[in-house]
Specification:
single chain, 181 residues, five-stranded antiparallel β-sheet, four-stranded antiparallel β-sheet
C-alpha cells in the first residue's frame, strides 16, 4: 500500500511539474512577442522610400495580416541604422513571421536573400488594426493602412492561439506621429 501511494504521489508531482514547465514556456513565448512589438512599434520612423526604382512609397504600410515599417535596432546589435521590418501572418503555416532588411539602397545587396524568422507558431488568428486621429477618418479603427502619408495614432494587435489560451489585446502608441513630409 505504501509503495502504491508513493508512486501515485510521484506521478502527481511529475504531472504538476510538467504542467508548470509548459505554463512557463507559454508565458515566456507571449512575453517575447509582446516585447518585440513594444520595442519596435513605438520607435517607428515616418520615412519615405525615395531611392527605390519603384514609385515613391511611405515606409509604413499595413493590412489586417501584414505590416511593414522602418525602425532602428538597438545600438548593441550587429546591424546599424534603419531597418525595414515586415511582419506577416501565414494562415497555412499558422505562424507569424518577421523579415528584417536594411532600409538604405545598396545595403540589401550585402544580405542576399533575407529569410523570415518565425516570431510565433500555432496561431489561429492574427489581426492588426490602425487608429486614425486626423482627416475624415478621425477617431476610427481601420483594417488597413495603405497608401497614406502619415502614421496612425495607435496600432492594435490581436492574437489568438490554437490552444485557446488567453492572449491580451496589445495597443501601442507611436513616439512620432503626424505627416512625414
Amino acid at each position: 500500500i505504501m509503495v502504491t501511494l508513493l508512486f501515485a504521489s510521484l506521478k502527481t508531482s511529475a504531472d504538476s511539474w510538467n504542467k508548470g514547465e509548459a505554463k512557463i514556456v507559454e508565458v515566456n513565448e507571449k512575453a517575447v512577442v509582446y516585447q518585440f512589438f513594444k520595442r519596435h512599434l513605438p520607435a517607428v520612423q515616418p520615412v519615405w522610400d525615395d531611392f527605390s526604382d519603384d514609385e515613391r512609397q511611405f515606409s509604413f504600410q499595413g493590412t489586417a495580416n501584414t505590416l511593414q515599417f522602418v525602425s532602428l535596432f538597438p545600438a548593441s546589435t550587429e546591424r546599424k541604422g534603419l531597418q525595414i521590418f515586415e511582419i506577416e501572418f501565414d494562415a497555412a503555416d499558422k505562424a507569424i513571421t518577421v523579415r528584417v532588411k536594411p532600409f538604405l539602397k545598396g545595403l540589401e545587396d550585402e544580405l542576399e536573400q533575407v529569410e523570415p524568422v518565425i516570431l510565433l507558431e500555432k496561431v489561429k488568428h492574427f489581426k492588426i488594426n490602425y487608429f486614425a486621429i486626423s482627416g475624415r477618418d478621425d477617431g476610427q479603427w481601420h483594417n488597413s493602412w495603405e497608401d497614406k502619408d502619415s502614421l496612425p495614432a495607435l496600432i492594435k494587435v490581436n492574437i489568438e492561439l490554437l490552444n485557446q489560451s488567453y492572449w491580451p489585446e496589445m495597443i501601442f502608441a507611436f513616439k512620432l506621429t503626424g505627416n512625414a513630409e
